[in-house]
Amino acid sequence: QVQLVESGGGLVQPGGSLRLSCAASGSIFSRIVMGWYRQAPGKERESVASITSGGSTNYAESVKGRFTISGDNAEGTVYLQMNSLKPEDTAVYYCRSAAANGLHYWGQGTQVTVSS
């Protein structure tokens, strides 16, 4: 059974920073790619950033230069450092892992609110 547990969300002022963490259980083959998604009220869930087991990263245009994804596939951890946060970054952030067999796993989500 693969479980993903996120932490690190909260309330921050515009221009501030937060660091999200995700811890995954299971084998390394259950997390070939790990990533962060977010869903704002009334909007579809969107990809924010991803990292492969080889360390390649990908970012949504809206967060490039502000967010940094990192992680350790062997340990099953992935982080999202979010700087220069904007009100439009407010959303529930979800950790996701993609397994070698094509299955996807999701965390429960953590709320990020950017507001003065």
What is the straight-line distance between the termini?
40 Å
Estimated helix fraction = under 10%
Q: Mean pLDDT, rounded to whole units?
A: 95
Report Rg.
Answer: 13 Å
- How much β-strand is present in the residues? over 45%
How many helical elements?
0
Shape: globular
| N to C succession of SSEs | EEEEEEEEEEE
Biggest sheet: strands, sense, closure?
Answer: 7 strands, mixed
Summarize the structure.
The protein has 116 residues and is an all-beta fold. It contains no helices and eleven strands.
Description of the structure:
- 0% of the residues lie in helices and 51% in strands.
- The protein has 116 residues and is mostly beta strands.
- Strands 2, 4, 5, 6, 9, 10 and 11 form a seven-stranded mixed beta sheet that branches. The chain has a four-stranded antiparallel beta sheet with strand order 1-3-8-7, with no helix packed on it.
- It is globular and about 40 Å long.
Comma- or semicolon-separated keywords:
116 residues; 4-stranded antiparallel beta sheet; mainly beta
Helices, strands, pairings?
Elements: E1 4-7, E2 10-12, E3 18-24, E4 33-39, E5 46-52, E6 57-59, E7 67-72, E8 77-82, E9 91-98, E10 104-106, E11 110-114
Parallel strand pairs: 2-11
Antiparallel strand pairs: 1-3, 3-8, 4-5, 4-9, 5-6, 7-8, 9-10, 9-11
